[in-house]
Every structure is written in structure tokens, then in C-alpha cells.
Amino acid sequence: MESIKQHINSLEQNLLETFVCDGCHQQVSQTELMIPIGPRAGERIIANYGCICDDIKLAEAAKQKHNQLKQSKLMDSFNYYSLTNRSLKEATLENYDPTNNDLIKAKQSVAAYINAFEGEQNLLLTGAYGTGKSHLSVSITKKLMERGFECLFLSLPKLLTKIKRTYNTEGVTEDELLSVIQRVDLLVLDDIGAEQQTEWSTSKLFEILDDRSGKATVYTTNLSSDELKERVSERNFSRMMENTNVIVMNGSDYRRRAF
Question: Domain IstB-like ATP-binding: where (predicted)?
């Protein structure tokens, strides 16, 4: 062991030059070394002391791997808990094709919402059936998940049905589902007002809205403000409109635009 240390300490070195590395911007000492022992004894090699380019590459690779795992986890959670129609699986902001100026402005407003997203501002998309409210709202979740935000898309009527089913079946519990709803960075509540109106549904909606206080939620509805207020109760309507921008989507049925 002592002999090896002696060889290392007496390693022949010849400083060739010093420079600033273009890659890592560190001061580098380029040194010529002669290998003292082993099969390559006597061979001369060039070493750049101070360069951390390889360390940066390893760190970037680790960061990319971490981001890929995070994206996969976000998507798995979205697919597991979200309640979306098959028709929305391929919906993106890019393939939303507005049919009039109002819907062009709606798409632009949604794009602006995505770009400025910080996790607090709410959005309400309202308009007639088939104008693409669900398409745009699920597009928001996809764009934000690309940026690392955790999102959830829930049709309110389906959500309430799913909660009722948890009372009698095994699997996802109501507490688990409500915990995820409370936790995510963005929740989409789709088709509000289409649910069966009961004292229980009104109370459950308030619980969901109350848990989301201070966090971003996107709502979609086919109802006018007066109709929605009557449908969900004035208290729920008031909670929904806190810190909420409204986008009105008027136009022909988006799903039948080819005709």
C-alpha cells in the first residue's frame, strides 16, 4: 500500500496550459501525466483538472430522469382518478378548432391562463352545448402537467355518482378521493349544473369547493349565471365566483362542426 502511495505522490506531471472551459466556464489546468505502474506504465496522458463538464452532464441526466419519473407519476395519478370521456383523451389546445371569433378569443384566453398559471386563479367556461368547453379545460390540465403541476379532471355528475358508490364498494374511498381533490394544483369540475340536484349533492359540492379554497379550479357549465345560481345554491355559486375569470363560449355545436 505504501509503495502505491509513493508512486502516486511521485507521479510525473507537466503543466501544458491553463484556460477557461467553454462548457463549464471553470478554470482548467491541462496537465500531461506519465502512468508510473501497471500495464500502461510509461504511457503519457492528458488530464484537464478543474473541468466539471462530466459532472454537469451527469447532473442533467439525473434531472431529466427525475422529471420523466415525475411526469409518469402525474399522468398515472391523472388517469387513475380523473373521470373523462373517451372523446377527450386526444384533446389538446393545438387541435381545438374554433368555429367563430368568440371561440377564437376563448382559445386565446385559455392559452393566456395557462401561461400565467400560478395555482390560485380560477376559470369558468360557460356557453351552449358542444362549443368545446370540456376540450379546452382538459387541454389546460395537459399543458400544466407538462410543467410539473398535478391536475385532475372530474365531471361533477360522475364524481357525485362515484362518491355514492364508495359507500357500498371496495376500491377508492371517499376520503381518498376528496384528499386528492383537495391536494392537486388544478382541479377541473366539468359540467356543473348537470348533476341531480339534492340536498346531499349541494352539500357535497360545497365541501369540495371549500376544500379548494385558495387553489385553482376550472369550472365548465352550460347554464347562465342565474340558472347556475339557482341550480347549485347561492352559497355554492358565491364560492365558485371567488377569484374567477369568466369565458363565455358562444357558437354552433363544436362536435358537429363538419356539417
Answer: 89-257
Domain boundaries, the chain: 2-51, 96-256
**Coil, helix or strand at residue 52:** coil
User: What distances in angstroms separate CA 141 from CA 5, 23, 78, 189, one per listed residue?
Assistant: 59, 36, 9, 12
HEC readout, 151-197: EEEEEHHHHHHHHHHHCCCCCCCHHHHHHHHHHCCEEEEECCCCCCC
DSSP state at residue 245: E
Helix (H) or strand (E) holding 34: strand 27-34
- For 178-216, what is each residue's pLDDT tens digit? 999 999 999 999 999 988 889 999 999 999 999 999 999
What long-range pairs does 96-101 form, CB within 8 A, spacing at least 24? 96/132, 96/135, 96/136, 96/139, 97/257, 98/132, 98/251, 99/251, 99/252, 99/254, 99/257, 100/250, 100/251, 100/252
**Half-sphere exposure of 26 toward its Cβ, with a 13 Å CA cutoff?**
13
Report d(CA 77, CA 75) in Å as an integer: 5
Question: In the chain, count of helices (H) and strands (E)?
Answer: 9, 8
Mind listing the pLDDT tens digit for each residue in 10-57?
567 788 888 888 888 888 888 888 878 888 887 888 888 888 888 888
DSSP-derived pairing of the beta strands 27-34 and 12-20: antiparallel
Tell me which residue has cell 386526444: 90
CB 30 within 8 A of CB 16: yes
C-alpha cell at 69: 419519473
- Contact call for residues 250 and 128 (beta carbons, < 8 A): yes
**Spatial contact of 30 and 60, defined as CB atoms under 8 Å apart:** no
- Binning the chain into helix, strand and coil, the percentages to the nearest 5 are 45, 20, 35
